[in-house]
Amino acid sequence: MVHRITMLAAMTMAVGASGCATFNTIPGTKVVDTKPNRELIEVCEKYRRAMEERDAPTLLTMAHTSYFEDSGTPKGDDDYGYEGLKDVLSRRLAAVRALRYNIEYRRVEIEGKRAKVDIRYDASYQIATEMGDRWERKQNDKRLELENDNGRWLFVSGM
Description:
Blueprint: H1 2-18, H2 35-52, H3 56-61, E1 68-69, E2 80-81, H4 82-94, E3 96-111, E4 114-129, E5 132-149, E6 152-157
Antiparallel strand pairs: 1-2, 3-4, 4-5, 5-6
């Protein structure tokens, strides 16, 4: 009987220990704390700050020349590349009067020179319209895709 209780206790502890693997995460995120992950989060934070500052020139320097956006729709008439990104950034950010852009970092996946950063964003902004300024709020899950170009992470999609 004692042997059976000891075996049961040992098995319970073994199962409990194997299910409790913990990883250090980057503070304020759900992302495992590694040097490459930190580098990507820093780039994404620079992107977030540039969005809040409505700084289209800085955002453009963060995009790879192979940038392509399909806007998440099946039709192709709203797709654009790097040249289209210039227009989208300048036009859309010019209409924004104020912007708060928060990002919750959920996952980073690096495969060679490419990386995917899964986020949840929460954006509140004041936008100029023909009927006057109005406030809007958007929250959504999103994937930022980046490519390492000579030691520098640049966005290839998702901005």
